[in-house]
Every structure is written in C-alpha cells, then in structure tokens.
Amino acid sequence: MGGRVLVVDDEKSIVDILSFNLRREGYEVIAAYDGREGLERALDSAPDVILLDVMLPYMDGFQVCGEIRRRDRLTPIIMLTAREEETDKVMGLELGADDYIVKPFSVRELLARVKTNMRRSAAVLSDGSAAPDVSGEIIRAGRISVDANGMTVMKDGAPVEVTQREYELIKYLALSAGRVFTREELMADVWNYDFYGDTRTVDVAVRRLREKLEDDPANPTLLCTKRGAGYYLAVSK
What we know:
By secondary structure, the protein is of the alpha/beta class. The protein is built from eight helices and eleven strands. It has a five-stranded parallel β-sheet with strand order 2-1-3-4-5, with helices on both faces. The longest helix is centred in the middle third of the chain and has 23 residues, at about 105-130. Residues about 125-135 have low confidence and may be disordered.
C-alpha cells in the first residue's frame, strides 16, 4: 500500500503497537515522543498522515496541530486523546485536525481511518501535480462557486481560503445544491468512512465554513441547516 505515517505520542507502548500494526499494513512509520520533536518531523519528513496525541511534553497536541496548520493546510491530522470532554474534541477540530479518536481505541478502527485519509492525501498530491485544465469546471450555487480544477472556492467572485477538507465539503454540497444531507451521509461521502464516526466532526466543519462564507455566521443564508435533518447549500441569493 505504501505511504508514510507520523506517530506522535509520549507513551512508547502506544507508539510501538501502532508502529507494528501500521508497518504490517505496508506503511512507513516515523515516530516522535514529544511535541517539539513531532512538529519537527511533521515539517521535515513529509508524512501523508499524522497521528497526534493531545497530551505531550514541551508542546501539547493542540499547539502542534495549530503550528502545522499555519504552515501546511493539506496533511491529514488525526488526534489521539484520552479525554472525553467535548471541548477538547472541538478544540482540535477548530485548530484544523481532520478527525480525532479517543483512547482506548480499536486498532482496526484507527487503521481504517488512516487508510481513508491516506487515499485522500494521495489524491490531493496527484491533483496538485497534474497539468491544469484550462477549460475549467466551475460549480455554481448562488453566491458560491467552486473551481473543481483549481480546487478553489469563491464567494461573489472573491476567493475564500479553505482547508482541503472544507473544500471537499463545500464542493460536495455545491454539486447537489439545495439538497439536504444528513450528518451521517456527509461522514460517509465526504470523510469517506465506511463506519459512522462522531458527527460532531461535521458540525465543527460546517461552523468553520460559515465563519468564512457567511455575511453573518450566526444567521446563515448560504450554508443552511434543515432542523432535524441536516445541512444544505442554498442556491438563491
């Protein structure tokens, strides 16, 4: 299968278990045991996926995640946490993590998430190295437009800076603008999980997108909620 996974955790036993199972699946593994080392490895070893513990010496996982995202908006980050508090989960997602998994976790589930994010990372690299299509493919939904070739999002013709995951979400909604999607559908089709993850991940991604797209994020008119059903991208101005 191939691909490089960076594991950042100060518990050697966890690093050893994850490294063994990842290598058995054909991945190259890079290990780091504190936040500073993890950040260095993330920036200099070009991993395809990062498994990042929250509780780390020197720099915690939130600090590391935030610093990585300031310099690199593409590499998938899955946060590993022993904490159940909702605020901890949300904080990681707000800082740009793609997902989180709570300890103790199933190795099988973690490997499935790594595989999913590895596929997405490989697709991004492939798209980024491909020759541009000058004909373009613009998906328009009211005030929002998505350039599928340039992988950019625009509002009223002005570019909006989004992460890779946010781009994938808004593109997916724009392709079926006006249709309501449940959180579970979005987890399956945008996050590409073959199982249902924590749908709070979707809620946080939507909130972050609203902060970038809406005139008034507290009263959204573009990325809307259908109460009791899910989310949709409005097509009217």
